[in-house]
What does this fold into?
Amino acid sequence: MLGIFGLIAVALCVVFLVVLTVKVWMNKTYSGTKKVFLSLAVLLLMIVIVYGLFFFILVDSDQASYYTNGGKHFEDIDNEIILENAKEAGYQIQGPFYVNIRAQDSTGIYPDDLTELEQDLGNEYILKFSTYYYNADTIMEIMFIDEDETTITFFKYSRPDPYFSPFKVEHLPDDGWIIDRMVAVFGFDEQTARIHLQEMKAEIENENRPKMEVSRPVAPSALYADLQEMSTSSEFSLSYGEGNTALMFYEDESLAGKINCVVPNHRIVHETDEATYTVKVDKLGGVDLYVELAPGERIPEETYTAGFKTMFKNIGLPETAVDEYEFTYSSSAW
It folds into this structure.
């Protein structure tokens, strides 16, 4: 709340100071030097106000926390029943979130033609990106920005200092392999795919930028079919509370590709006098935990584990599972 009212206050102060500056320069009795001096004074005051408010917002939003080093996955739990139990227990239910943001703020696409994924993920998941493995060393990543914007990037792990050294054309997979993927995923004809590839090669030569931007909808079912054809088996990775999962495609024992998705998660929140307890539950059975306190404060481990055990009991999760989580303390969010 301080942040909202503070921003309003700063906006009003800025307007007032701008008006004051205008009046200073319109005053014909002031010399040019005096006007410059007063204008600089007003500018300095504006800077002090803005930085002061920023400081107070940081202090107001700061918090200490206990967080896990990774959530847990529970088999055969019913997400809807857990949320209903939480509601009956009087806990706050926040969400749905996709990782930590609302659906409208998340990048990605909502496919409507992938019944194979809907069987496992439901119909509310978002496709985030897909990765093709040319081999264990070289990958092609397709990032779904929105329905009509996609980026394709390449990475080669074995080149010297791979995260910082220049990417060169010779680090790319074979032209034919790249073109086949683009034809399959975007429905391009071979000539159009080749034009995109040549444009990216020019970018690599000029700016070491192994990336192309495609303003064309992806065909998720075609992407799935292409990866399915390249592989001999597939399986989903486990989720751990935030809703991240990937359908992994294997050619024998080697990873051929993956489709990364996010399903919704909800936060079950219980506030006490000393802390705020949050159980984050995603639709696939992932559960993560964290505790929020005033900056610098601590509470005993037995206190917050007992708090979570009570919540687990009330929402229908096994209380003993709380003991399997490992927590890390942070005295401040900053």
